[in-house]
Amino acid sequence: MKTLIKNIKEIVGVSTNENTNIKSGNKLKDILSVSDGWIMIENNIISDFGSMKDWKGVENWNDTNIIDADNGIVLPSWCDSHTHIVYAGSREIEFLDKINGLSYEEIAKRGGGILNSAQLLSNTSEDDLYAQSEKRVDQVIKLGTGALEIKSGYGLDTENEIKMLRVIKRLKEKYPIPIKSTFLGAHAVPKEKTKEQYIETIINEMLPIISKEKLADYIDVFCDKGFFSPQETETILEAGSKYGLQPKIHANELDFSGGIEVGVKMKALSVDHLEFTSQTQIDILKGSKTMPTLLPGTAFFLGLQYPPARKMIDAGLPVAIATDFNPGSCPSGNMGLIMSLACIKMKMTPTEAINAATINGAYAMGLEKELGLISKGRIANLIITKQIPSINYIPYSMGENNINKVIINGKIYYDSQTNY
Ligand code: NIG
Ligand code: FE
Fold first, then answer.
1. 259, 230 in Cβ contact below 8 A?
2. Ligand 2 centre and the CA of 100: distance in Å?
3. Are the C-beta atoms of 390 and 397 separated by less than 8 Å?
4. Please, are residues 6 and 39 in contact by the beta-carbon 8 Å criterion?
5. pTM of the prediction?
6. Spatial separation of the C-alpha atoms in residues 302 and 174, rounded to whole Å
7. Percentage helix, strand, coil, to 5, in the chain?
8. Helices (H) and strands (E) in the chain — how many of each?
9. 188-203: per-residue pLDDT in tens?
């Protein structure tokens, strides 16, 4: 079966070169587009696209499904490469603590924060956790996310970390978008163990089960002040690499933690957060294959300083942006909002934000050959916008949902008209 998307005002984020990869430095703002366009999809793959002036017609209309873009813009779906979307309950009580002046670290020290989520999760069955999480996954797909990374890290003991990873596995099986699973056992230290004991558990108890059940694609450590040191991070990542798990790490959110250095040294696919980044770390990232991934929703929600995105881009680095969707530091999976924050707070241009949220995000999940651009042979996960004046309108109209339809594997997943 073929599908034709017609009446497209503009196709944005196209590529005619199959080898197109991530966008860095002054190329980050470059985005190719086709006006007055059409896209042909065969099964779940983009088979062709072009402008109406080069339109050659359809061979067999009986075998062709039509999707009317109604003069909207079509973009590649968002690639959200950093989330903690599997969690139990919520933490709005800490939201009040924060308003009343407590910092993220102070809340964590009082047993709030990650430990609070761990407590809630241990009292939640796997089925209930799955039910809570699948609603969020459905919600973010309807907001335009067409590839998703999800971390464990609210288990903090073997039983509950495995419970989280099994839920992620079930989400992978149920949802039609690519989902990558990251083992983040080293997210915090549980109350009942010393750090050394807990690292021992991660390495000798959790990792063998995760490997046997094939529960993770990546391994993560919260390498930051008050959490795990670079040395501890390296020990854990090394153990993970014995099981073939590539690192994607939390680095430099709360301080100059050494996380970027250890991430690059350990060939991490991405280092994420990076609120504390200076020229030294930028120089270390340059020439590496590690994607700096910025999470402006977290800096916004926690009132932190923002990562120096402009300095990074002007120094020639690529950057990806992601939501960090989690109950403590960014209770939102809305990539449109994250793009607004990237533009407003980090001075990224709209086209830089789009590339950072699509092709560069795809790279940070190992999906840069399959998603993130509109080109022949890529998976047809696409966003069709409402009638908007230009792509700049997307981050400009902060908080507005500009999505008309979401296409996943060439089929309509969500239609704003029917709300389904
Ligand atoms: O990415 N920084 C560490 N982990 C999460 C927050 C976790 C939480 O507070 O629940 C983050 O911000
Ligand atoms: Fe995170």
1. yes
2. 23
3. no
4. no
5. 0.97
6. 33
7. 35, 25, 40
8. 16, 16
9. 999 999 999 999 999 9
